[in-house]
From TrEMBL:
It is a multi-pass membrane protein. The chain crosses the membrane at residues 26-46, 52-70, 77-97, 300-328, 340-360, 390-412, 446-467, 503-525. GO terms for cellular component: maltose transport complex. Keywords: Cell inner membrane, Cell membrane, Membrane, Sugar transport, Transmembrane, Transmembrane helix, Transport. This is Maltose/maltodextrin transport system permease protein. It comes from Roseateles toxinivorans. InterPro entries: MalF_N (IPR035277), MalF_P2 (IPR029345), MalF_P2_sf (IPR047103), MetI-like (IPR000515), MetI-like_sf (IPR035906). Part of the ABC transporter complex MalEFGK involved in maltose/maltodextrin import. Probably responsible for the translocation of the substrate across the membrane. The keyword Cell membrane applies. Residues 301-524 form the ABC transmembrane type-1 domain. It is found in: Cell inner membrane; Cell membrane. Belongs to the binding-protein-dependent transport system permease family. MalFG subfamily. GO terms for molecular function: ABC-type maltose transporter activity. The lineage of its organism: Bacteria, Pseudomonadati, Pseudomonadota, Betaproteobacteria, Burkholderiales.
Length: 534
């Protein structure tokens, strides 16, 4: 008994460890070692692909993770590390990567690096048709896993007989490297030639062979040209010591231009494809300095602000008004009304948007059918820019007012009833109560949420994409832009939809949107802090 008391006084249990706990202790370090090796392998593969900076960043993240979860010194950070790592991976990394693209000319015409473009151009060639030679493939009798390639060549001099050349035994296994094969005169019969099906099976290995014949044949190195042919090739380009490329057909020189991302000749004629280069602040200055781009961009930016502001104002006005009406004690069937008014928020947004797209159809929509029956007009909602913007605001207010109504309904319950009783004694009416008591007390705590709603509508891509797709378009612009586009849909169009996708410019606009939304978030936090302190 005294021994048990002494043991408990030391602060630990006297129960023996279970089998599971023993296994966990034994496997802890082997599993940790395997995880470290897997992490190092992943970092090495990223570094081998040419992304050294991202490999170093991932190595730092893995090192911090192992330090926190393996060492006792990092115990205090074990619950904080997942959140920090998630923020770095899902917020910081996409932001930095997008911002980095914004300083380049990355586009559909500049997808590759300069090294890849140079390799692509130098690899362009054509076969010398007059010197193409047929070949056959035979199984090697001494080794069942080896093959011998037989090449038939015509003599270089008139009247010279045809000669046949044979390769040493070839494994023809999967390989990434080219293999030079010295061809020898055929002096012994071989097994029957393999059928076409077998040639197709070995096609990738045959493409790596470079057949070398004796100089007396007059043939240079032969390459695989098809399922039945090898032959010499003639390259279109030659690289010079200064890095320029010489076109063999006319001898023109094309030098790399680090500003445009093209190989160009003396006259400035570019050579396709282009390559990615850093252009600095060019994409950002283009938004301000280029008149043909600045016009649509500033219009779209202004419409984005107006669209978001009008949506918040009308949604707040309608939602607050309905919340006040539903808070009236003498109103019958309040639950039914509340349920019906909540339906737009319960139905998925994309379904409601597609329904409205049909309702606003100029020829077959119910809205135009009603307007035609009442006043004899059928507005072109999707063709007229002003009507299209009005339609967007109407649909977005329909989708957004239930959210404000629910918030206001909860805030109304927190207003003391004594204020309304004192107002009634003073002889004030409903309008006075609303503007002097209800609205001020509701708007104050509602303000941060309205800022969040403004930021959400600032990036409301789904509504624009499904309802108008940004149409109608601006005319005579360098970059296709729609009059109902907002910044996020305009960025999507630049990056992915229209021909000549400009990812660098789209990344610059995305970075600008991020800072705008970040500023709204900071304003939101400040308003919330003031609301809590007051």
């Amino acid at each position: 008994m005294n021994a048990m008391t002494a043991t408990l006084a030391k602060g630990y249990s006297t129960l023996p460890p279970t089998a599971l706990e023993k296994a966990a202790r034994l496997l802890r370090w082997p599993i940790t070692l395997l995880a470290m090796l897997a992490s190092l392998y992943l970092v090495f593969m990223i570094h081998a692909s040419g992304q050294t900076l991202w490999a170093l960043g991932l190595l730092a993240l893995f090192s911090a993770g192992f330090y926190v979860y393996v060492s006792n010194a990092g115990f205090a950070y074990r619950y904080l590390f997942p959140g920090i790592a998630g923020m770095l991976v899902f917020i910081a990394f996409p932001l930095l990567y997008t911002a980095q693209i914004g300083f380049t000319n990355y586009s559909s015409a500049h997808l590759l690096s300069q090294e890849r473009v140079r390799e692509y151009l130098l690899d362009q060639h054509e076969a010398v048709e007059d010197l193409v030679q047929p070949f056959t493939l035979h199984a090697d009798g001494a080794n069942k896993n080896a093959y011998r390639l037989v090449l038939s060549t015509e003599g270089t001099e008139q009247g010279q007989a045809q000669r046949r050349w044979v390769s040493p035994p070839l494994a023809l296994g999967p390989t990434r490297d080219e293999m030079r094969v010295e061809m020898l005169p055929l002096d012994a019969p071989l097994q029957a030639a393999l059928p076409l099906r077998e040639l197709i099976r070995h096609r990738e290995a045959l493409m790596k062979l470079r057949l070398v014949l004796p100089a007396a044949t007059g043939l240079s190195e032969l390459r695989y040209l098809g399922l039945r042919e090898f032959g010499p090739i003639k390259r279109h380009w030659t690289e010079l010591p200064d890095g320029s490329l010489k076109r063999e057909t006319d001898g023109q020189l094309f030098k790399p231009n680090g500003q445009t991302g093209y190989y160009e000749n003396a006259a400035g004629q570019p050579l396709q494809p282009g390559y990615k280069v850093t252009v600095g602040w060019q994409n950002y200055t283009r938004m301000v300095m280029d008149a043909e781009f600045r016009g649509p961009f500033l219009n779209i930016f202004s419409w984005t602000v107006v669209f978001s502001l009008l949506t918040v104002v009308f949604s707040t006005a309608i939602g607050m008004l309905l919340a006040v009406l539903l808070n009236w004690d003498d109103l019958k069937y309040r639950t039914t009304y509340r349920t019906l008014l909540f339906l737009p928020y319960a139905v998925p947004g994309f379904i409601s948007i597609l329904v409205f797209k049909g309702l606003f159809n100029q020829n077959f929509g119910e809205i135009n059918a009603i307007l035609d029956a009442l006043v004899g007009i059928k507005p072109a909602w999707f063709a007229d820019p002003l009507l299209a913007k009005i339609m967007l605001v109407i649909v977005n207010v329909w989708l957004g007012y239930p959210y404000i109504m629910i918030l206001c309904a909860g805030l109304l319950k927190a207003i003391p009833a004594d204020l309304y009783e004192a107002s009634a004694i003073a002889g004030a009416g409903p309008l006075t109560n609303f503007f002097k008591i209800t609205a001020p007390l509701v708007i104050k705590p509602l303000a941060p949420l309205l800022v969040s709603a403004f930021a959400f509508n600032f990036n409301n891509f789904v509504l624009i994409a499904l309802l108008t797709d940004g149409r109608p378009d601006y005319l005579s612009t360098k970059i296709p832009a729609g009059q109902t586009d907002i910044l996020v849909s305009y960025t999507y169009r630049i990056a992915f939809k229209d021909s000549g996708s400009d990812f660098g410019l789209a990344a610059a606009i995305s970075t600008l949107i991020f800072f705008l939304v970040a500023a709204m978030s900071l304003l939101n936090l400040r308003l919330m802090r003031k609301a809590q302190n007051s």
